[in-house]
Amino acid sequence: MTMTGLLGGSFNPGHRGHRQISRQAIDALGLTEIWWLVSPGNPLKDEKGMAPLAARFASARKAARGLPIRVTAIERELNTRYTIDTLRALRRLYPERQFIWLMGGDNLAQFHLWKDWREIARLVPIAVVARPGYDRLARSAIAMGWLRGFVRPAGQARNWTEWRTPALVLLKLPPDPTSATGIRAADPDWHQNIANVFNPKALRDGVTRRPLK
Prior knowledge:
With 213 residues, the chain is an alpha/beta fold.
């Protein structure tokens, strides 16, 4: 089994914070690689201000350079909009892989709003990475009322493949203050600038190897 972390998000844009938590998660969880799932559209986020998929994909590719990370827009090919549907499809398509879902504390704070969130927890283990300013909200999250009984010791994180789901581990990793919101505020035209670095027509999906189009 190939131990694979899944980090979903808008990547609007991808940045060093995504890179840092991924690098640390690879070490903490003993992962072979991580897939960055660049969402074609997040049901919980306003589409206003959302850059084109190609620009977000390219920014993620740039941020992931040199690490065992595959940047993929496979959700568009699968035509899945919700995490639960994506996970079901990935488990069916890649039975040789063992997946663990990675998310920040900000996501845990609103996890109860995700479609079939309990079923997500039953499908795959979940590793939560601290996000500055969200620690209290994450630990008091509505979903934690149910998940708290399934929390595993952070010191045993590398044993996640042996855990029976639901299983949640709160990784104690140094937080990174970088945020996509801050980057967009400082550089509203970032998605146009990145087009000078990556040719959208030359982008290939890191998992399917098909052109992004």
